[in-house]
């Protein structure tokens, strides 16, 4: 399973909840991509990590990383895409920063304390223009082979999770 969407959309929270319900391991890609003090993995390191991860039998993988999306999508059977408004995502990122002040979240790499800066806010603001269309186009190309859920509101994601918890994940398509 893949969970995609803008920063602040709720991907990590949803992934963790889904992992609790399904018993599947949850892989937060940010925790593997970012080294201490926000040092990014090299492309070679990241490609090797992706090759190892997609060999796993089953998992819930949280994160975008568009350069490797096709590779991950080939292996996934279910995809959740959080298509939320940018102001909501920015609000949540600011709230997350306040709540996690001075700490490293469990879904982040060790030594990557919660931070927020103009560059990150700009990345969130431009996500819809820069990434949304590409993600939707990619998902459209595989919609016949994959189960794809696109949540436009938090309520839709919560409803899906409630139905899934009750054992009726097929009904979550409605």
How would you describe the overall organization of this protein?
The structure is a single chain. With 174 residues, the chain is of the alpha/beta class. The chain has one domain: 3-Layer(aba) Sandwich (Rossmann fold). Helices cover 49% and strands 14% of the residues. The protein has eight helices and seven strands; from the N terminus they run E-H-E-H-E-E-H-E-H-E-H-H-H-E-H. Strand 3 and strand 4 form a beta hairpin. Helix 1 runs parallel beside helix 8. The protein is globular and about 40 Å long. The relative contact order is 0.19.
Give a brief description:
The chain has 174 residues and is an alpha/beta fold. The protein has helices spanning 11-22, 29-33, 43-53, 69-75, 86-99, 118-125, 127-142, 154-165; strands at 2-5, 26-28, 34-35, 39-40, 60-62, 78-82, 147-151.
Topology:
Layout: E1 2-5, H1 11-22, E2 26-28, H2 29-33, E3 34-35, E4 39-40, H3 43-53, E5 60-62, H4 69-75, E6 78-82, H5 86-99, H6 118-125, H7 127-142, E7 147-151, H8 154-165
Parallel strand pairs: 1-5, 1-6, 2-5, 6-7
Antiparallel strand pairs: 3-4
| Beta strands, count | 7
Radius of gyration, whole Å:
16 Å
Please give the count of helices: 8
What is the number of domains?
1
Question: Averaged pLDDT, please?
Answer: 90
Distance from first to last alpha carbon: 19 Å
User: Which strand order spans the largest sheet, edge to edge or round the barrel?
Assistant: 2-5-1-6-7
Amount of helix: 40-55%
Provide the CATH architecture. Answer: 3-Layer(aba) Sandwich
Please state the overall shape, judged from the principal axes of the Cα atoms.
globular
Mind summarizing the main beta sheet? Answer: 5 strands, parallel
CATH topology: Rossmann fold
Low-confidence stretches: none
At the first level of CATH, the class is: Alpha Beta
- Can you identify the CATH superfamily? P-loop containing nucleotide triphosphate hydrolases
Structural class: alpha/beta
Sequence of secondary-structure elements: EHEHEEHEHEHHHEH
Portion of residues in beta strands equals 5-15%
